[in-house]
Amino acid sequence: xxxxxxxxxxxxxxxxxxxxxxxxxxxxxxxxxxxxxxxxxxxxxxxxxxxxxxxxxxxxxxxxxxxxxxxxxxxxxxxxxxxxxxxxxxxxxxxxxxxxxxxxxxxxxxxxxxxxxxxxxxxxxxxxxxxxxxxxxxxxxxxxxxxxxxxxxxxxxxxxxxxxxxxxxxxxxxxxxxxxxxxxxxxxxxxxxxxxxxxxxxxxxxxxxxxxxxxxxxxxxxxxxxxxxxxxxxxxxxxxxxxxxxxxxxxxxxxxxxxxxxxxxxxxxxxxxxxxxxxxxxxxxxxxxxxxxxxxxxxxxxxxxxxxxxxxxxxxxxxxxxxxxxxxxxxxxxxxxxxxxxxxxxxxxxxxxxxxxxxxxxxxxxxxxxxxxxxxxxxxxxxxxxxxxxxxxxxxxxxxxxxxxxxxxxxxxxxxxxxxxxxxxxxxxxxxxxxxxxxxxxxxxxxxxxxxxxxxxxxxxxxxxxxxxxxxxxxxxxxxxxxxxxxxxxxxxxxxxxxxxxxx
Length: 504
Fold this sequence. Notes:
Blueprint: H1 2-18, E1 23-25, E2 31-33, E3 35-38, H2 39-43, E4 49-51, E5 53-57, E6 63-67, E7 78-82, E8 95-100, E9 103-105, E10 115-118, E11 124-129, E12 144-152, E13 160-169, E14 175-185, E15 188-198, E16 204-209, E17 221-228, E18 233-238, E19 241-247, E20 260-261, E21 271-274, E22 279-288, E23 304-307, E24 311-312, E25 318-328, E26 334-342, E27 356-357, E28 369-370, E29 372-380, E30 390-399, E31 411-415, E32 418-422, E33 432-438, E34 451-454, E35 464-467, E36 476-483, E37 496-498
Antiparallel strand pairs: 1-2, 3-30, 4-23, 5-6, 6-30, 7-22, 8-11, 9-10, 10-22, 11-21, 12-17, 12-22, 13-14, 13-21, 14-15, 15-16, 15-20, 17-18, 18-19, 23-29, 24-29, 25-28, 25-30, 26-27, 26-29, 31-32, 32-35, 33-34, 33-36, 36-37
């Protein structure tokens, strides 16, 4: 009868394993399934707090988390910022902006919801500088930076991407070309100053700055041109790497007196983005100051963090079995996990309960017991924002009512009408022990069995108990269990035996 019972249980265990359930034995002849929480099981990170992260659609259509976009920042140094989401984002107090037939391309934008697409000569953004604008009438532009993301469809020579350039009648009545141009030559973006760089003697200079790296077709690249008027250094950066340098000084070398960049008074030409260029642009920005240290990767370089809501595991002695996750970590990016468990409910932003780092992808948590669980993950990018990890799902497995460990080290010493027991202290959070007593091996049918031994009645660090009022010369068989406050009981310890006897 007993063997048939256990055969049935073994069959159920095998069936559970075949169907993907996780099972564990709590008490003799008792089976129960571990609880599973998974972000991909309809939860979709609901209730989680996101910092510097975006919820996106993964390649298989499921939701996932990645680092936020590295969109150009807008602060007091910014003279102009044109994002690609919509013409409504074309705002500046220093320029009157007119967008002529600019197409907002919403198919696979780099950032946000769209990018500016230029396909025809009439696709352009016209900028009329107001007083105080960096590209307006000024006797000294000072240090400045122009940076943007570009996705060229073509790169014909002399094709302008951006310019404020045209004819000008100087004081001597000469018609001169003047201004700045950003254009393609030999598949490279070139920056030209024409008749607007002045040395200390009043002479006018022209310069052109290019570099070695070519602009790749149908690939997003970050381009920056930076002028430092303190040293005269003018540099070109491609994807954050300095690619070309010239010294805008009276000697054309380092150590010379820096030239002064100025648009002549009365020069009314509008600045223009697009109009001849064919391709896409995002985050076109003009700043005051020599800003060459900004991150240029597609993704934020700050740490991204997702913090879960507090999960109720159901019982005060639940044990966390594992935390596992699915993530893509390209280019050296990484995902780090932490968790914390407590017996009491706590707010999600609690600062007193310490976090515990998960040291491997799927970890075992032998001492992580309690009722309330919270996890968080840190997403770390790589190569200055070029790569982001993608967190696809998180899976938690816990025993909702974990039985305590089986007591070990049980020994028995017989005396006159009594048996003295000693055993090792349990490391679990238990409420006490139960002593099972009988006169037949494996049968604990003594009238006082089981004896309840709460922790408060014994030395919890060095447990022991004396069973009294026993019959001398009778052999007794003894085993013990540990139990928790919510009634979960361990398996039986090894059985010991002792025979009380009258002492002389």
